[in-house]
Amino acid sequence: MEKLSGKMKKFIHKETILTDIKKAALNIFLLTLEDNQISEAINPGQFLQLKIKGKILRRPFSIFSRSNNTIKILFRVCGEGTKILSEMKPQSKLDIIGPLGNGFPLDSKSPLFIAGGLGVAPLNFLANEIKNSGKFIYGTKHENEFVALSFPETTKHKIIKISEEKDKKNVCDILPEHLENTDTVYASGPRKMLKKVADICTKNKTTCFITWEERMGCGFGLCQSCAVKTRAGYKMTCADGPVFNINELDWHEH
Amino acid sequence: MSINFAGLTLNNPYLAASGCFGYGGELENIFQNQKWGGCVSKTITVEKRDGNPPPRIFETEGGIINRIGLQNCGLTNFLSKELPRIKNLPYPVIVSIFGNTIDEWKTLLTTLEENNVPAVELNLSCPNLKGEVVVRNIDLCTNIVRELKKISGIPVIAKINAIYSPVELSCGLKEAGIDGIVCSNTFPAGVYHNGKFYEGGLSGPAIKPVVLKTIFKIKENVDIDLAACGGIWNSSDIEDYRSAGARAFVLGSVLLTNPDTISDFTTAF
After folding, report:
1. Cβ separation of A217 and B42 shorter than 8 Å?
2. Which of the residues B56, B196, B262 would you substitute to probe the A interface, choosing the one with the greatest number of A C-beta atoms within 10 Å?
3. Residue B215 located in a structural domain
4. Alpha carbons A51 and A57: distance in angstroms, whole number
5. Among partner residues B50, B59, B260, which is closest to A234 by beta-carbon distance?
6. B64, A57: Cβ pair inside 8 Å?
7. Separation in Å, CA of A73 to nearest CA in chain B
């Protein structure tokens, strides 16, 4: 399975309208952007760079879902930039660049999605787009952090929700028992979780793609800020990723 | 708007700064980048460099701190992989170089000149090289330039730092035969991130007043082609730097905010 290349594409840089913003869970917001260009071009796993008023660096966000003329972004308020974004009013303008990065391969016959916390965003999009049915494991720390998934009725992913608060275990604890009959694992979440998922999938010889996060500058491979240590040296999260096969990364460094 | 800067003819006085524009050709036909007067490649060293472990970039009030650590593909890979695609760009790509020894500086310059690179920028001032900040040693800098000018016919430009004796250094560089000076590189700075202290280089609007004063002081003392680099965000920044004595304007951090900046600049003036 080949990943899509994130390099040398024509990016769209435009001003768009933020049509809606609402609270999706504790400290988590769902933002809707009006757009019919990027939504058509973007693949699951790719991301957008949003310009935040008063900030120099753009902030990268993955896509939660798309329709013909909207893109939805899910984010947690975790710093000044996301706080400013969360306080934006509907009908305000937002400067965006995308689609950026590579994307997930979509040809799994029996996928397993494993999402930790906000990691659910790109996997919700992926689970929507992937043709074959599978399982969707979604974990959070607390019950009030779950957001509503948006699979259309035509998909048949079995959803397994687990919270550390209620279930006293996390997504990695239950992953091994679900690997049978899975050809590909798609993981997104905190780094600690990804490391465990990579370890489990390596031992089980299951193909696994993860989406990586790193502090980012330009978003298209020029400034070399978002380095990630791979077995072939540093690569850039924005242009070589953010989706990596677990075999590409040097997990000793993470 | 065409100008002659340091012996180079540029369609306009706006250059993309080293480190913010890749090797020069990556964004061809993406955004409005054919409008640049020129650009400076990321710094090339003789051997490839891995750069620093992440995190490598932080935002501060009015600025960015980076600690990339001169990651680059090395001279040989640059010639085979990057040079072919920057040769046909509608603007000149000035290649930024850094040598650990005088022989390395010479190797870089002569090799690039043989491959028809139009000019080089000597990165004398990167703050992300522990113990290697050449710019603090004026004699060493002038000696490097003197040696390089003996063997080269292409323009040699020096990137200096506004906080390390810039006027005295500029006098020395002029005597040594430098063709132009870009001021300034990022300032040495520090930041706490998740409880850990990181050193890096500060750029952006936060450093502009210091660079502006430095440009003014250099111009007052040395007759040299000067390019301003430090927090250029809009037309009033350009006017300030022009008034202080700069002839070319080098845009860096702003490209992270708006990669189409050059389009706004070339249509506005």
Report:
1. no
2. B56
3. yes
4. 7
5. B50
6. yes
7. 20
Number of domains comprising chain B: 1
Look up the pTM and report it: 0.93
| Residue B239, domain CATH | 3.20.20.70
- Smallest CA–CA distance, residue B122 to chain A, in Å, is 19
Q: Do B135 and B159 form a contact (C-beta atoms < 8 A)? A: no
Q: What is the reported pLDDT for A2?
A: 45
Is residue B20 flagged as an active site residue? Answer: no
Please give the Cα distance from B23 to B151 (Å, whole number): 25
What's the CA angle centered on B77, arms B72 and B81, to 5 degrees?
105
User: Which one of B20, B50, B258 has the shortest CB-CB distance to A223?
Assistant: B20
Query: Which of these, A142, A19, A23, A15, lies nearest to A77 by C-alpha position?
Result: A23
Domain ranges, ordered by start, for chain A: 12-100, 111-253
Helices (H), chain B: 74-77, 83-86, 102-114, 138-151, 166-176, 208-221, 235-244, 254-257, 261-268
- Looking at 3.40.50.10610, 3.40.50.80, 3.50.30.10, 3.90.76.10, the CATH number of the domain A111-253 comes to 3.40.50.80
Task: Indicate the burial class of A77 (C-beta count within 10 angstroms; 0-12, 13-18, 19 or more).
Answer: middle
Q: H-helix or E-strand containing A171? A: helix A171-174
- Note whether residue B262 is domain-resident: yes
Rg (C-alpha) for chain B, rounded Å, is: 17
Record the tokens describing residue B61, joined without a space.
Answer: 């009030």
Kindly list the residues from chain B whose CB atom is less than 8 angstroms away from the CB atom of residue A51. 257-258
Tokens of B67: 């600690």
Reported as a single tens digit per residue, the pLDDT across B187-242 is 999 999 999 999 999 999 999 999 999 999 999 999 999 999 999 999 999 999 99
Contacts of B190 (CB under 8 A, 6+ apart): B65, B197, B198, B199, B200
Q: Work out the pLDDT band at A9, boundaries 50, 70, 90.
A: low
- Name the architecture of domain A12-100: Beta Barrel (2.40)
Enclosing domain of residue B239:
3-51+69-188+204-268
B36 within some domain: yes
Distance to chain A for B51, nearest Cα, Å: 8
Share of chain A above pLDDT 90, in %: 89
Among partner residues A10, A51, A216, which is closest to B257 by beta-carbon distance?
Answer: A51
Instruction: Determine the residue among B57, B61, B126 to mutate to test chain A binding: the one whose Cβ has the most chain A Cβ atoms within 10 Å.
Output: B57
What are the pLDDT digits (tens) for A107-131? 999 999 999 999 999 999 999 999 8
Report if residue B19 sits inside a domain: yes
Are B259 and A215 an interchain contact pair (Cβ–Cβ within 8 Å)? no
Q: In what order do the strands lie in the sheet with A70-76?
A: A59-62, A47-50, A93-100, A12-25, A28-34, A70-76, A65-66
What gap in Å lies between CA B91 and CA A254, rounded to an integer?
Answer: 41
Tokens of A101: 């990065």
